[in-house]
Every structure is written in structure tokens, then in C-alpha cells.
Amino acid sequence: MQASITNSTTRYGWGAIILHWLIALIFIGQFGLGFIMVRLTSQRTAFELIQLHKSFGFLLLGLVILRIGWRLGNVWPALPRSVGTLERRAAPLAHLALYAFQLALPLSGWALVSVSMLEIPSLPFNLFLMPNLPLAESDAAESFWAAAHWYLAYAGMMLVVLHVAAALRHHFQLRDAVLTRMITPSSDDGAE
């Protein structure tokens, strides 16, 4: 059977799989890049990495919006019968929290550069000028959004660690298909 771009009732399609792993890679990479760029002594290198961080932040925001639309427009595979009641109730909340953090982080970063007194333009991948959000510039606003972005980053990474731990638990301890269905796409007829 040929793999499908859309989901089936038992597995994810290529669309969801590619978006999931691309967003995961960028989200985790952004954390590492952010961690490094604020600790550099070279202002030139720091500036270049900040521009790269902003570029990937805007890309992440667009991909997450696309992923949410994809999720709303596709059937979603049901959890295996072996999954308990508590986990069945917690899984949608955990996914909702992941989406919320994946939206809030780039938005808080965009707000941060928008209120900055430095007025450094955002040039995603040096392709175009990204306009600032209509927020008033001030040192107090910059401090607020910097703190919000920092706390959201660490809380988001903790959520990612929990998500990975849950996936690994399903794969190695429970030995169900929760992880593998996010790696192997559905077939066109929806059969596994």
C-alpha cells in the first residue's frame, strides 16, 4: 500500500509526521540556540545568532499554525485500548499545552523585539522585513517580554521532556504503537 499524506483512524499520515518532527527539531534547536546566543562575548556573532533565532521563531510560528489547521482538518488516530482512563484524559490536555507553548514562545519573542528600545529590525532569513507588533516600546515592556519568553522557553522544554518520556514509555514499557505511528505513515486505505 502507498503511504497517505492524511491520517487514518489508526496512524498518522505524512503531513502530520513531517510537521511533527520538523516542529520538534526547530523547537528544541531554538532552545539550544537561545541558550548559546545570550552567553556569547562576541556581539557580532550574538547579533547574527539572534537574527537566526528570530528567523526560526517566525518559521516555527507559521508551521505551528499550519499544524493546528492540519490537526483540525484531519481525522486523529485513537489511542490504543491499552491506554488507561487517566492517560486518555491527560493526553489531549498535554497536546493542547504543547500547541499553546509552541504558539506563545514565538509570539512572546516577537513581542520582545517589537517593544525593544534598540529597534533592531527582524529580517527572517534576510528575505524580508518583518513588521513589529503594534506595542509601545519601553524598558519595562522589554523586561516583561524578556522574562515571559525565558519562562515560556524553560516551561516548554520541560513539557517536551515529558512528552518524549511518555512516548518512550509507550514504546519500551507498554510496547504499543503510540510512538511508531508517528514514524510510519498510514496507508491510503487506512489499514495498518
TrEMBL record:
This is Cytochrome b. Residues 11-184 form the Cytochrome b561 bacterial/Ni-hydrogenase domain. Keywords: Cell membrane, Electron transport, Heme, Iron, Membrane, Metal-binding, Transmembrane, Transmembrane helix, Transport. InterPro entries: Cyt_b561_bac/Ni-Hgenase (IPR011577), Cytochrome_b561_oxidase (IPR052168), Di-haem_cyt_TM (IPR016174). Belongs to the cytochrome b561 family. It is found in: Cell membrane. It is a multi-pass membrane protein. Its cofactor is heme b. The chain crosses the membrane at residues 12-36, 56-76, 96-118, 148-168.
